[in-house]
Amino acid sequence: MEVYMIEFLKSWVLNIVTLAILIVLLEILVPSGKLKKFVNLVSGFILIIAIINPVLGLFESGQYKIDFDTQSSFYLDKKSIEENSRVMNERQLKLTVDLYRERLIKEIEKRAGEISGNYTVKADVIINEDSGTELFGQIKKVYLTLGETDERKNIKPVNGIERIKVEKIGDTAGEGEDKVENSGKVDEKTAERLKESISNYLSIKKDDIVITLKE
To answer: Model's pTM, two decimal places?
Structure first.
């Protein structure tokens, strides 16, 4: 078994190094922009599978089964092996989906942060996790929660002093309002720019992007 494991490790490392080199070359050749970011996302996804899959493949390997049975004090029947294999495949799939979702969130937060100005950004996504459908991995909904920084707040409270609203004499209702935006909701221009950017980046509808302001 030791010889088999050494050969397995050599082959595994060689495959990972080869794939990593190909990915680097591909990233160099692909022009910068949305396509490059998409290629980076997919290549990272492929690299993760390439790292995990061979290890899980050991449990399905006939040679490993023989060595395992010989050195173990208990017997695993065919049904148990199939069940273990199914559970491992489910775990591998869940791990891959979680990593994909986490990377998506980071990319969205980074992109939104470049546009949001004085807002802090937290993102969340809902993706299709049903591996039995053609839409597996499709982004169904994007949620952006914006928080106001100190610079965005309308009025900074001073110790013991109440906020005072001063209106010009003669102004009618709704006129002469302060130009500072209401902190109760997201600035419409910022929200539209965020939706436009994320929509183009992920190729989803603007209606599938929900932006809220953290209270």
So the answer is: 0.49
Per residue in 79-125, pLDDT tens?
666 676 677 678 888 888 888 889 999 999 999 988 887 788 999 99
Domain ranges (residues) in the chain:
118-215
Q: How far is CA 187 from the centre of its chain?
A: 25
